Amino acid sequence: QVQLVESGGGLVQAGGSLRLSCAASGRSFSNYAMGWFRQAPGKEHEFVAGISWGGGSIYYSESVKGRFTISRDNAKNTVYLQMNSLKPEDTAVYYCAADKGLRVGPLPSSVDYWGQGTQVTVSS
């Protein structure tokens, strides 16, 4: 079992930045691929970014590529999502995700563990 707790969400103006964190507890964090999804009101979960257990493989959705950066610190059992150049369409609840396989996503059904989510609101 892995418990995931997100933090760092909030309200920011368009063009601004936020850094989300996801702290993991439970079984060995470094054995899991980690990632981020988001869900806007009335929409399904959307894959945002993923990172392999060792950090050697990183991948993004086209909608955030070049603006968001995912990273992890296995010594701190934490994964991060640095979000720059935020747009109003980035507004959503952001969820941390863990997968026992080689990678997270893109389908939410493949995720083994979810965090509770953190709200990100980008004003125009």
Task: Produce a short descriptive summary.
The protein is mainly beta. The chain has strands spanning 2-7, 10-13, 18-26, 33-39, 46-51, 58-60, 68-73, 78-83, 92-99, 113-114, 118-123. The chain has no helices and eleven strands.
Overall SS class? mainly beta
Main beta sheet strand tally, sense and closure:
7 strands, mixed
By DSSP (H or I, 4+ residues per run), the number of helices equals 0
| Strand-residue proportion | over 45%
N-to-C span: 40 Å
Q: Which residue ranges are poorly predicted, with pLDDT under 50 across at least 5 consecutive positions?
A: none
Global geometry: globular
* Number of DSSP E strands: 11
Task: Give the averaged pLDDT, no decimals.
Answer: 95
Indicate the radius of gyration in whole angstroms: 13 Å
Q: Which series of helices and strands comes N to C? A: EEEEEEEEEEE
Helix content: under 10%
